[in-house]
Amino acid sequence: MSKKKPRALPETLGMPQGGVETHAHLDMEQFEGDIDGAIDRATACGVTHIGQVFLGPQAYQDNKAAFHKHPGVFFLLGVHPHDAKDLGDDTLDAMREAFHNDPRLKAIGEIGLDHYYDLSPRDVQMHAFRSQLTLAREVGRPVVVHSREAWTETMDTLLEMGFKDYPLLWHCFGGDADMMREVVANGWMLSIPGPVTYPKNEALRQAVAEAPSERIVLETDCPFLAPAPWRGKRNEPAYLGFTARCVAELRGMDLAELWQLTAANAVRFFGLE
Fold first, then answer.
1. Does the pLDDT of residue 204 top 90, yes or no?
2. How far is CA 61 from CA 36, 67, 144, in A?
3. Which has the closest alpha carbon to 25: 10, 35, 36, 13?
């Protein structure tokens, strides 16, 4: 019986320092007791900044202290469409206060619509989405959008509310080239996740190959969506290099150049130092 080929370790990619992981959920239970370890491993693999996403103000209040000693971690805060049923005026007030008082909070997100799971009623999701878009304008922060099986509804809402050319990042982009071009035409950014490394995702891979260089950033969405060769395992920021390697190959670019390019795009979008 032949032994399985060992999975490649991320440190073997030799990524230079300066990479930006734009979307991580390090406060989830999968990282309990391992937040510092995950950040240290990412640093060893060239990831200088990590966007930690807090799903609601309670998660932010409960878990922000875990990142005090990691200045390279910046924060995003938003009520996910799954939790839209829990959003009220008190939630919006808590978010407003947090954004006014914490400069590490760089964007409102992830917010949007999820018609795949429908864990909150669709009209409730829409109310939460629109309320948080309004808040983003009020506090002057970019928006990071979650849209699953709700492309038309999400796009129509953003355009109706005047978000064309507003700083907006399409989280975990999984669309085809036509969808990519629509995002780009509205002045928005694309965040490329681990599934781009899955060979059967031909439409996504073609979209990533054709996307304008100044509009792409990288994410893990960890602990979910680990890239090959770690598909099916817990994802973490150290694995970002595998996604970068695939994107570079698809675009015919040098890996270090792609790493630096996507990092510069993320620094500009989030206003990082």
1. yes
2. 18, 12, 20
3. 35
17-270 belongs to which CATH class? alpha beta
Q: Which two tokens stand for residue 156?
A: 């129509």
Q: Using CA atoms, how far apart are residues 240 and 238, in angstroms rounded to an integer? A: 6
DSSP code string of 25-93: -TTSGGGTTTHHHHHHHHHHTTEEEEEEEEESHHHHHHHGGGGTT-TTEEEEEE--GGGGGG--HHHHH
Give the pLDDT score at 4. 73
181 class by beta-carbon count within 10 Å (0-12 exposed, 13-18 middle, 19+ buried): middle
Q: What's the pLDDT at 152?
A: 98
End-to-end Cα spacing for the chain: 52
Q: Say if residue 137 is exposed, middle or buried (CB neighbours under 10 Å; 0-12, 13-18, 19+).
A: middle
pLDDT tops 90 at residue 253: yes
Instruction: Look at residues 121, 151, 136, 262 and name the one whose alpha carbon lies nearest to residue 196.
Output: 262
Which pair of structure tokens corresponds to residue 12? 């073997």
Mean pLDDT to the nearest integer, 232-253 = 98
Q: What pLDDT was estimated at residue 3?
A: 65
Cα torsion angle, 120, 58, 47, 40, sign: negative
Domain map of the chain by residue range? 17-270
